[in-house]
Amino acid sequence: GMALVFFYATLGGMKGITYTQVAQYCVLITAYLIPAIFISMQLTGNPIPQLGYGSAINAAGAEMLQDPATQGKYLLDVLNGIQKDMGFGAYTSGARPRIDVWFITMSLMIGTAGLPHILIRFFTVPKMRDARSSAGWALLFIALLYTTAPAIAVFARTNFIKSIHNVEYSKAPSWFKNWEKTKLVGWKDKNGDGIMQIAKGAWDKPDTKNEVKIDQDIMVLANPEIAKLPNWVVGLIGAGGLAAALSTAAGLLLVISAAISHDLMKGIVKPDMSEKEELIWARAAAGVAVCIAGLFGIYPPGFVAQVVAFAFGLAAASFFPCILMGIFNKKANKEGALAGMAVGIIFVAAYIIYFKFVNPAFNNKDHWWFGISPEGIGTVGAALNFIVMYVVGKFTPEPPQEIQDLVGSLRYPGKLVVPPSAGH
Questions:
Q1: Measured between alpha carbons, how far is 62 from 103 in angstroms, rounded to an integer?
Q2: By C-alpha distance, which of 152, 149, 160, 158 is closest to 76?
Q3: What interhelical angle do 231-258 and 219-226 show, nearest 10?
Q4: DSSP-based three-state secondary structure for 273
Q5: Cα–Cα nearest to 359, from 374, 379, 377
Q6: Is the pLDDT assigned to residue 328 strictly greater than 50?
Q7: Listed residue (51, 44, 49, 84) closest to 65, CA to CA
Q8: Rounded (10°) angle between helices 2-44 and 231-258
Q9: What is the pLDDT of residues 211-238, one digit of tens each?
Q10: pLDDT tens figures, 184-193
Q11: In this structure, what are the phi and psi dihedrals at residue 181, rounded to the nearest 5 degrees?
């Protein structure tokens, strides 16, 4: 997988990857929506997943869940009841403090606005108007994907519990046996009754009643199998997962390689570097980045959603304040931006490292700073970045006047912008 991503990114280039990512999104969104539509229709008769998971279960859905008593009941009410019966809280009640949910949401939003591999996409269009239009379309397509996620989570959770809980291991569904071979799901018969039971607590600890383990990262891939969808749908999900991995990894590798080769090596270390040397540095940087990413893939610091939240938090605490201040404050300078980014990154990284690696036993709401988890701390890092950037900017020289004029002119589409001379 690492070799495939490296080959794909280093030989594709920005233009080639841009076109292929369009095709990859088509594969990804199709693979994501079709199972959701199938399962929504099976359970509720509603073909729209975003509405289906708030609808009542029909006769076919009750048969699928192997529980006639669920017919006519709202799907979320059924899931809440199942959760409570197993010792968990209601699914819709939420397990995190409200303040943490708010901070995570804000971190994800402003982190998205600061992701380098997203921002670099605006350089692939020739006009400012096209860039703004493409941002609008991107929001539409992103919303189509993200609004389906809660529905898939409800469908997957309900189907998973109903197909496993209180079922004899000898009669376990085929999907469970297949995934068990990968060690991503498992079962331990703690009470010796031969029946799989899901309960609160870690499955590998003898003092808990939970006997079933499932890796959270496989839920989207396993969802069609759990719902007994046709094999071609299962295959489509695999293709969608590969498309998502390739498109995201390629964009990130391009940004990393360009930053190392062009911005660092040619811009600072060796300004007279030839194009050939720059290309060599770009590919070397991509190779190192792939190896580091591969190590984190083999030894992940958390499940995918957590790692994504960490990345977005770091982007929120570093790039977003600089972008916003650069647009709306013409006197924001280099010294302030560097100081703000350093403070934001160090603070967020230290918070994540402490709770995830140094003292994971304290990684709970009782020990979090003001109830804010490592996934949401990026919002605090962004606030610190803004403050430091503003304060440092007040005590350091302002940008040259031509830079301030350039920033002002960029706010008016269609106006001719003359870049400042080299060296500023």
A1: 38
A2: 158
A3: 170
A4: coil
A5: 374
A6: yes
A7: 44
A8: 140
A9: 888 888 788 888 888 888 888 888 888 7
A10: 898 998 888 8
A11: -65, -25
Structure tokens at 67: 């529980």
Tokens of 172: 């376990």
Beta bridge partners of residue 146, listed in sequence order: none
Give SS3 for 397. coil
Q: Are 215 and 184 in contact (CB under 8 A)?
A: yes
Is the backbone of residue 112 left (phi > 0), alpha (psi -120 to 50) or beta?
alpha
Nearest to 392 by CA among 349, 343, 324, 328: 343
Residue 340: the pLDDT is: 94
Mean pLDDT of 157-178: 90
Count how many residues are written for the chain: 424
DSSP H or E stretch at residue 7 = helix 2-44
Residue with tokens 């706010």: 411
Tokens of 326: 């650069």
Residue 424's pLDDT band, with cuts at 50, 70 and 90, is very low
Residue with tokens 């600890």: 205
CA distances from 230 to 32, 153, 158 (A): 15, 20, 19
Q: List the chain domain ranges.
A: 302-412
Task: Kindly give the residue spans of alpha helices, DSSP state H, lying in 169-303.
Answer: 174-180, 219-226, 231-258, 275-298
- For position 102, what pLDDT does the model report? 93
